[in-house]
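Input record (Table S2, row 579):
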Amino acid sequence: MSENKPDGAPDAAGPNAPPETATTQSNFVRDIILDDLKTGKYGGRVHTRFPPEPNGYLHIGHAKSICLNFGLAAEFGGKTNLRFDDTNPEKEETEYVDSIMENVRWLGFQWEGKPLYASDYFQQLYDWAVQLIQEGKAYVCDLTGDEVRHYRGTLTEPGKESPYRNRSVGENLDLFERMHAGEFPDGSRTLRAKIDMAAKNLNLRDPIMYRILHAEHHRTGNQWCIYPMYDFAHGQSDSIEGITHSICTLEFEDHRPLYEWYVEALGIYHPQQIEFDRLNLTYTLLSKRKLLQLVQDGRVSGWDDPRMPTLAGIKRRGYTPEAIRAFCKSIGVSKTNGTIELGLLEHHVREDLNRRARRVMAVLHPLKVVIDNYPEGQVEEMEAINNPEDASAGTRQVPFSGVLYIEQDDFREDPPKQYFRLSPGREVRLRYAYFVTCTHAVKNESGEVVEIHCTYDPASKGGNSPDGRKVKSTIHWVSAQHAVEGEARIYETLFAKADPGKVEEGQDVLDNLNPNSLEVAACKLEPSLAGAAEGALYQFERLGYFCVDHDSAPGKPVFNRTVALRDTWARIEKREKGK
Ligand code: ATP
Ligand code: MG
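Output record (magnesium ion complex):
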């Protein structure tokens, strides 16, 4: 592959958030910030953070959170921290940290200063835990996990106090220090906040602050064998960093009272947690845990399989950061969870690629066409427009000859009504070339059409006939002797069900996978695609947008179908079938 900047590749991300992310259309989070700016609540500061757990690759749902956090801060001249919420040593890896940084930058954002880690605060969190013990607000509990759950009660019944709840401060300090020193096995003790076992909100029923876990951490190694729980780490991390608006998804709404209890009990700076709706998309699973399962079970080729909703996957597929940002802006934020149509995301991808992608001709399912009256051995160069949306993209020459390939779909021996492409006796326009009329088809022994024959009208060069004759269809082609052999990977949704998370009894989400999510086609490409650079984006005329995959080899490009064009004929056919 050449090392040129890919055609139509997105611009490199600048240091500041791209201007179109400014949330000009207001939403309730922005309104809260506007209000705080008016009242001077944080002295005019806006400081947000994006806090991924490095236990998987980011997905399109995270993009919504990223655009919101970075977009709002950028709009108000504020800052956004990237903070890895790495309190869970068993599932976290450096590979994920690296991919997350790459994805955030790719989306067009740059965080404030260095990336931060909750694990940077382990010592401070430990000291704060000791402080709460000293103030009689935390205790070491010897109940097992099951017992803790059992004592917790339910939504309708209050919990029961742990028999260890009233240990003396001295005993708690001693036990916690020994937990820290590694004296006790995993799961044998926890440190719990002493709040209220009868609280309506279950999160306030003496939540666990620390657990014992003799596990190596991707950054702190074996320094710690006790780890803080998410709730004990998150708000305090926000506080340490001076975050003003801690924007998270709705499932944390019930955790907010605990977030506030900790910062208040510790008497430290108090950021404001605000919850918004999680992105759900039809035909798509947005859960790192389930996506990991697909990777581990080999159902996809990896985290960056172009069918995956990960940012790595959709980047490889050819989605652009601009399209994703436009999509995130269009869906807005609210206080109720819903599901967005995948079609809306695809719409934004088409809108963006329509502007930037160079048009080329490629035949995915080739059918040979012989033009019987075309002079033997002649080759003509036809001028083709690179991008009708962008005059500066200019034109190119495409070789034409007497033997071509067209799409199998563009010929029907027995054309149905409203089918205006080639069929015996029918004349159509070959894009940028000539009018041709089909004379007959050649079939193999099993009766399949293997080749068709046509005649051309030499006077129609360029695509118009001097006598003003009209044709109803224009089809694309590739000259057989000049064609570059390539591979096209044609994707459909990874899941066959609009709600893949919904499973029948005895089944799991893997049963909802779409068996036809990948078709590999040996395709014929116009010669200009021989040196197409990895990542380059094209519109294959009449077919869709395609992006050069990194599996390409010199002279053998591999293309991912990013998104199909809206195919009017397919829609007619579907409608007819539905009748
Ligand atoms: P997953 O369930 O996919 O593992 P998560 O919420 O556990 O996601 P985190 O790494 O904790 O993943 O997420 C980092 C940030 O991204 C959080 O603030 C979280 O609320 C947000 N986020 C995650 N998924 C979505 C989503 N689908 N829509 C919007 N924001 C999301
Ligand atoms: Mg999480």
